[in-house]
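INFO worker-7 received task bundle
INFO bundle size: 2
INFO processing item 0
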Amino acid sequence: MWTSRILSSTATRAASASTAMMSRSRSLAQFARQSSSSTSAISYKRTHPHKRHPALSSEYLYPAAPSAEEAVSNILYNTPPGGRGYVQQRHIFNCLVQNEPGVLSRVSGILAGRGFNIDSLVVAKTEVADLSRMTIVLRGDPETIEQARRQVEDLVPVWAVLDYTGFKVIQRELLLIKISILGPEHVRAQIKSRAPGWQIIQDETEEELSPSNALRQTHAHLKSLTELAHLFQGKVVDVSSDCAVVELSAKPDRIDAFIKLVKPFGILEAARSGMMAMPRSPIYDMHDHEELAEDVGSSVDATMLPPG
């Protein structure tokens, strides 16, 4: 009986010892794995030595001034090529006409009869009730333009025709443009959807976006369009779920540049008012007038001197 108890206690001790050894071996293996992962960065650095970048040279920090030949070559390379061929000069007419029906048709009829293509024509009444102001922009030879100006001025309801060509004038034109904010791939479907009896088909779009991606893309396009309009001193006056309307008042050249820049977004429709012009007023300096008066006062008339 005592022998069986001794044997059972011995077996129990052996089992507990084996269990402890197994748990110890597991902990050692786990520690080995932890130690190998923690030292992997060191081993990687030893096997892959860091390549130091070369120090910046003095030529990079203090670049030498370009020579005259290099500067001229750079300017010639960056200068856009000029237009080839003869380009007719643009003329600006400011017509003061009587505010009555039929004046516009008579003025445009004379210009059309001489073969002029009118670039823009703006008519509006002035602060005087019976007077209207007409701004006409056209191109042609100076001699032909002068003949047309005289013929227009000979009309009965025309008070005067002023040619602002060659003068310093303030030019402004108003642009209202509706631009898509969905992307250029959806412009065709947007334009067709505005036609009566048309329904947008999924095949019209190139790819199907999730609602979150479509919303993110729409806001990104709207933000880019707003920043571009701000650079041209324009503003977004209307926003919908698929397009935005931008208002811009600037010179005709800047209007043309803005239209070219927003064309990749997708232009749905645009309206231009035509160019309005007004001559700049000269700036007079009182100091210059005082000097001129002193010179005139100090001068002596030779006819008033005695003979001899």
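INFO item 0 finished
INFO processing item 1
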Amino acid sequence: MARFTSALLLASATQVLSLCSHNTFLHPRAEGENGTVAVKNFGYTGSIGPLFWATLDPGRVNERCASGNRQSPIDMVPEVFTLRPASDLDIVVPDFPEGTEFENLGTTIEIIAKPGGTLKVDGKTFELQQAHFHLPSEHLDAGVSRAMEMHAVWQSAEQEIAVIGTYIDVVVDGAAAAPAVTAPSARFRRRQAAAPVNGSTSATTLLETVFSKVGDITQPGTKTETPPLVLSELVDLWKAGSFQAYSGSLTTPPCSEGVNWFVSTQTLRIQASTFEKVRNVIGFNSRMTQNAPGQLNLQMAALATVMADLSQAAVNGVTVGK
């Protein structure tokens, strides 16, 4: 049994390692029937969860999820990113006086960008496409998971992608949530909310406005319109801090690499009641933390360990799986 399992795993590993790399790209927005939003075919648990993303598309579009060595999200510790001042990024996003479309994709909730939002960095220009939300945060803040994370996704004319990630904390009674009681590991503690550069610890009006409509899209495939949105609040917050930059991947299939990540040192905030409403719609949609950029893909590393153990078991004559 051990020899059979080992051979099967070896065949799987060979297939994954032989797959070629794809260019970074975003799946185009798809409309469902009768004007509804097309629901994604992946998820975050069970047989459609992250461990199986590479197998969900017969065309091998998602292969990098299991073989790429610059996957996201990661633990944002100093050795994996370059700290860049906000002045390195020229960010322009107009307000949306008429609101915009707010969708439930089944895997996240997403606001669609209006034309005019641009990000200029390192001689390249990216246009804002959308912003979506993860619960809890996908990136770890030096080993600590935050309540949520917003990803503002930008794309250049050459199909290159940039993402600005921004942590979201929960405000309780008008103040940032206090740290939890000391736990055995920092990974399971709520980080003490540092005072932002602009001094605000109140709920972010932009997010409260967007999420005021989350009750309209409780079902996957539904969409609504937001009230008018003042995006200058978000841009001002970004410009008041700095960015932790690294080259990674999309955190959802197809897990394309070459994504320019900029994780803001600033924090967005929402009321506890708002967080509960959003949580009831999103549920859980956070990919597991990946290895540091350049290291072996997390799934390949696990597979190699299992194969080594099975091979040793076979040498020792141990029956596995009996």
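INFO item 1 finished
INFO post-check item 1: The first strand starts at residue 75 and ends at 76.
INFO post-check item 1: The mean pLDDT is 84.
INFO worker-7 idle
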